[in-house]
Amino acid sequence: MLFFLISIIPLFLLISKSLPLKALPLWASEVRLLSILFWQEFLYFLVYSVKNTRLISSWVIEISIKMSSKRKCASRVQNVEESMEMSVLDLPDLALECILGKLSPSGLCNMACVCSSLRDLCRDDYLWGRHMREKWGRVIGQSVKREWEWFLASRKESSGACVERQSAKKPKRWIRSLSHVWPLSWIKMRLVEGGNRVRSPLPNNSIMSWYLSLESGKFWFPAQVYNREHGHVGFMLSCYDAELSYDCRTDTFQARYPPHGRRTVVIEDGVQWDRIRAPPVDTPAHDLHISDCLHDLRPGNHIEIQWRRNKEFPYGWWYGIVGHMEPCDGSEHFCHCHLNDTIALEFNQYTPGSRWRRTLINRQDHREEGNESDGFYGGIRKLYTKDEISTWKKLWPVEVLE
Ligand SMILES: [Zn+2]
C-alpha cells in the first residue's frame, strides 16, 4: 500500500502541474521532473528507513527477550548449581568423620584422590589406625614398629631423590595443548591436583603409609610362624621368628627364616594368617628369655619354652604342659609337685618313650639347660589366656611324633 502511494503521488503531481494551458519553457518541465524524482527517492529512503528501523527494533526486542530469557535460565541454572554445590565437605566435622570412618582402606585411597581437602582428611592417622588394628593388630608387635622406622630411614635418601626428580618434571606438552580446547577449569583442576600430589607426597611416618607398605608386601616385618616350613615334622608345635612379606593376591605370606647354623636362609610361601603371631615377648631369637613364672608353675599349666638344637641356632618357642614329678600319681589331694624345686615339662605330641617327650628344669635357678644331644632349653613363659592355648591345640599334629 505504501509503495502504491509512493508511486502514485509523483504521477498525480505531474499531471496536476501539467494542467495549465499556458505552455512552459522546456527547461522548466525538466526542473519540475527532477524535483519530483528527488521527492520520490526521498520517500523511498524514508520508508526504507522506517522499515529498517522496525526490523532493527524488532531484532533488538527479540535479542533482549532472548537475553532476558537466558538470564532467567542462567539464574535458574545458577540456583540449581548453588543447590548442587552442597558437597560432602560442607557436612559437620563429626558427620564427615563418621562417613570416612565407614570407608574401607581402598575407599579412603579413592576418596583421597578427589581433592586436596579430602586427601588430607583421608590420610588421617585416626582412620588408618583403626584399619591397622583390625587387619594387622594380631601380627604386629613392638618390634615391627622399630623395624618400620629402620625401613623408613633406609629408604629416606632414595625417596627424597625420587621426589626431587618428579618436581623437576615440566608439565607435559599435550596437557598444555589440551588446555586450549578443553574446559579451562577442568584442566586447571587437574594440573593443580597433579602439582599438589608432587608437593604433598604421603608422609612416610603416617599410619597410612605404614599400612600400604604392609599391604604391598614391600615391607618385610618381623613376626613368628607356627609349625614352620609347612609343618615340617622337626618343628611341629613350635613357633619361630621370621621376616614376613604379605601377598595381597593370595592373602598369604612369604616367610624368610634366618640362617640356622650352617643352613642358609629358608623361604616358605603361602603361610596362612592362622600360623602367624606377633612375638609375645621382646626377646631376640638368639637371647635367653628371663623366666618370671617359675614359682607359679604347677601341674596342668600350659607353657612355652625356648629350645634350640645347638647354641649357634636361634631359639624357637615350643608348647608344653607342666607334669607331675615321680612318684606323684596326679591325685589332687596328695600332689605336692608345685612345692618341688624341679619342674617336669611334657611335650605330649611325642610318643611315650621319645627323648623329646619330657624334660626336667630347676625352678630355683633356671638358666639354659641341655646338651648337644637333646638340645638346649631356655626361658619359659606361662600361657594365661584361652586364646593362646586354643591356638596351640588347633595346631596339634594328626599323628603322634616319634
Ligand atoms: Zn603332682
From TrEMBL:
PROSITE patterns, per database record: FBOX
F-box domain span: 85-131
Annotated Pfam families: F-box-like
Protein's UniProt name: F-box domain-containing protein
Organism: Asparagus officinalis
